[in-house]
Amino acid sequence: MASILQKVLQEYGNKDKCKIQDPTKVEAILQKLVNDGPSKLQVITDFDFTLSRFHKDGERCDSCHGILDHSPLMPDSFREKAKALYQKYYYIELDHKMTVEEKIPHMITWYRESHNLLIEAQVSKQKIQEMVISSRALLRDSAVNVLSNLNDHKVPVLIFSAGVGNILEEVLHREKAFFPNVEVISNYMLFNETGECTSFKEPLIHMFNKNETALDSPDYFQHLKHRHNALVLGDSIGDLDMGSGIHNPGALLRVGFLNDKIDERMDSFINNFDVVLVDDQSFDFVNVVSRLVCGQPLKQ
Ligand code: TMP
Ligand code: MG
């Protein structure tokens, strides 16, 4: 009899893009996910370049920060300073020769400086909406279907993002994807009475503290304490810990989207994520797995 993993790969159809170090382990996880069904499942996903695309038509897409960094509605001085920060720190974020511990102080400095630039630029709520509408922040193909389907099956989805909460919410609204099953934990801008950003909500979430320590609402996992199984979706090694707040974890399938610096980061992704999707700009794999768990026919 064909294994569940074989069935998933066949339906997914992009076997070349899918790397799995330990198929036996993945098969066991899939079997438990399917046997336990949607009532035991929760989904935890990163936003930037996980739920959203990394590129389209040969051009890079925008992250939450990228929307502002590239917008003509922001002052030139802001764009220049933001670009300089990005050029300095993004390479540190991805440097496969540095340990996470070595990177963390640099990442905190990046976030503090970047948030200060946004406060200095007095970015307003209304401008955010305009910038999102005209941006290149795009959700992955079939991501909206997956979110809608999970909502139909009452499977909670946590978007755990080290981007900017107000901005990613606007993207979800624009795509009509902010379903009632979606919760967001992220960095939120706080505004004054005239609608300008004056500070950010604490605690700061950066790409390497996405675990219980970054939750200011530990109730989130408490409410879901009967849901032991999870799909944990990310595009960074820092996303692996996003499920650390789950009570008595059962079957956790960690899926890594490997978008950038593919050759250098392949080993670390394969060693850490259960499934690695190499330069796949769709949510098709997640769609297949979630449909199987929800007991739905695979073809829509
Ligand atoms: P995440 O996708 O893990 O939530 O992380 C957010 C991404 O945002 C991470 O790759 C770093 C990036 N970022 C920027 O592009 N510009 C910035 O100013 C900051 C602070 C982060
Ligand atoms: Mg990301």
TrEMBL record:
UniProt entry keywords in alphabetical sequence: Cytoplasm, Hydrolase, Magnesium, Metal-binding, Nucleotide metabolism, Nucleotide-binding
GO cellular component, as recorded: cytoplasm
Tagged with keyword Cytoplasm: yes
EC number per UniProt: 3.1.3.5
One Gene Ontology MF term: 5'-nucleotidase activity
Substrates-to-products reaction catalysed: a ribonucleoside 5'-phosphate + H2O = a ribonucleoside + phosphate
SUPFAM superfamilies given in the database record: HAD-like
Database matches in InterPro entries: HAD-like_sf (IPR036412), HAD_sf (IPR023214), Pyrimidine_nucleotidase_eu (IPR006434)
UniProt xrefs under PANTHER family: 5'-NUCLEOTIDASE, 7-METHYLGUANOSINE PHOSPHATE-SPECIFIC 5'-NUCLEOTIDASE
Protein name: 5'-nucleotidase
Species, as recorded: Orchesella cincta
Organism classification: Eukaryota, Metazoa, Ecdysozoa, Arthropoda, Hexapoda
